[in-house]
Amino acid sequence: MAKQKRGKQSFVPEIPPVITAWASVAGKKESEGPLGHSFDIARTDTYFGQKTWEQAEKRMQQMALDTLVQKAGLSLENLDLVCSGDLLNQCISSSFPLRNTGIPHIGLYGACSTMAESLMLAAMAVGGGYADRVAAMTSSHFASSERQYRFPLGYGGQRTPTAQWTVTGSGAVLVCSEGKGPRIESATVGTVTDLGITDANNMGAAMAPAALATIKAHFDDLHTGPEDYDRIVTGDLGQFGKEMLLALARNEGLNLGGKLEDCGTLIFDRNKQDVHSGGSGCGCSAITLCAEFLPKLRTGKLKKILFCGTGALLSPTSTQQGLPIPGVCHAVCITGGI
Amino acid sequence: MAKQKRGKQSFVPEIPPVITAWASVAGKKESEGPLGHSFDIARTDTYFGQKTWEQAEKRMQQMALDTLVQKAGLSLENLDLVCSGDLLNQCISSSFPLRNTGIPHIGLYGACSTMAESLMLAAMAVGGGYADRVAAMTSSHFASSERQYRFPLGYGGQRTPTAQWTVTGSGAVLVCSEGKGPRIESATVGTVTDLGITDANNMGAAMAPAALATIKAHFDDLHTGPEDYDRIVTGDLGQFGKEMLLALARNEGLNLGGKLEDCGTLIFDRNKQDVHSGGSGCGCSAITLCAEFLPKLRTGKLKKILFCGTGALLSPTSTQQGLPIPGVCHAVCITGGI
After folding, report:
1. What predicted TM-score, i.e. pTM, was given to this entire model?
2. Which residues of A touch B194 (CB under 8 A)?
3. B79-B80-B83 Cα angle (round to 5)
4. Could you tell me if B41 lies within 8 Å of chain A, comparing CB atoms?
5. What is the value of ipTM here, to two decimals?
6. pLDDT tens for each residue of B60-81
7. Hey, is A323 helix, strand or coil?
8. CA-to-CA distance for B1 and B65, rounded, in angstroms?
9. B47 touches chain A (CB under 8 A)
10. Exposed, middle or buried, B305 (CB in 10 Å: 0-12/13-18/19+)?
11. Which domains does chain A have, with CATH numbers?
């Protein structure tokens, strides 16, 4: 068996790649939430100085990448690779900011799982000896997502209780072959799970089974259990999906209670911010990881987390054609560093 | 520097991964073209037995994957990983066929460069010791692409001379840590190149500069030149883009004449098939690689090719907002095996 492979879906880099820096850019609503004080950049202008929401999203990724290299004391040309993706059609928020920068780019699509997917690939590239400095990056924008996936904002459609609020934000993480910081100890590649959920306003339900499948696969492959992690962090099931995951896990004799946190429930204050089931979008787990978990891993407040990016692999076309919503979840185990 | 990294954008696996099998599925027009006799599966039914074109595309990927494992004498559960992507919004043709198969999946978006991108990542996963058997896969469908990117087919829009015809097809390639077959010797990750082309009916012009940038980077990083390759295979610039690449290269003192072939010009007979500038779409380079080049590499008829997947990173939204079309090109060097 391949030497860095573990079990069916996981890998363990021989030399764990180091997360030496991270950067987060957040919108207005996010900066008014519980993590508001922790973002590197927060803006009240939904357009980020651009003419359209799609261009605002590109601008956020550009700001996140610039801030990342600045915080790392590097410049863009020091990056060996950027692994990034987003929710917009043809991933334009990810490719446009890299135009003519000369940075090698691998474009990804993993829906809201993309922060974990990009981190996993960055770890693979660094751990495999292909690159020394890789940026993993993603973004989402409430307004560009709403009009692409659901309704134009001006339509004023009623939101269901299970609906989630797409986060306006972008997160970027620098994964290196050496340096100081939290380390990527292992990762588990997700499988596409479909339990027949067809309600496009209930992403949590579509993603929870995928999250459980990957968490179980991770425990099996690495011979670990919930007790080995300080936190199991899903991103982003929302309140409804989180409860569903806890129940599904309990049904299989797995107790995630006390360990499970979900980025979708952390980023907004549901009582005050009218976000229904919580936050969602690639940017949600990206900026929550950067603002809440990586700092705590750096200081040693957290020793080990399993960061589980969850994505709903639907498109408006698949939904209109009556197809169910498959989910995917990629998991990355990050340990506290010095 | 990371031990498998070469130069700025390239990598050279210490043990070259082996391409042990491949499979191609093609539509009616493709099977009537010059490579028609070489596809594993050809169908005259545009719907591939499904109700919609989008579902037909998913069906093609399913058929390609099933054929691939069958030709390799394996079953689906023997695969460690599938790296795949496509052109449809949210890459539904790639994720849906893998539902509930239990195969780990990395979703990609590289527009029409995806066959090279997926091959490159498969080589990275196998060469890095993360996996032993990885399928790289992609697809496109003329009818699903036209209505998503351009106009509904029923509208009967006039096509410009530089327009290309999206190939209906899916290709899958099995990359392994051992076995017999062509080998992946090196790869070059592309950068996002934007020269300000805004004509969405002239993808060749948008992609040619990216192709040149990556080919030059590959030569620089590996200390090689056109004379070291039997063929430099772009996919898919079309006739117009191919001529543009030759001219751009000549301007920089690089003579690609006699070496350059383009999948978009090989797959159709432009004189008989009314495809204007040639073929395009992820499926174009995928099935041309599988039907034309990999068999010749296996028999030793070709010793070494540089397979350069080219993609135009536009979306209908970016075009409607007046933005230019960035291009990307990933290159994979494949040598003849036994």
Report:
1. 0.98
2. 99-100
3. 90
4. no
5. 0.97
6. 999 999 999 999 999 999 999 9
7. coil
8. 37
9. no
10. buried
11. 5-176 (3.40.47.40), 183-335 (3.40.47.40)
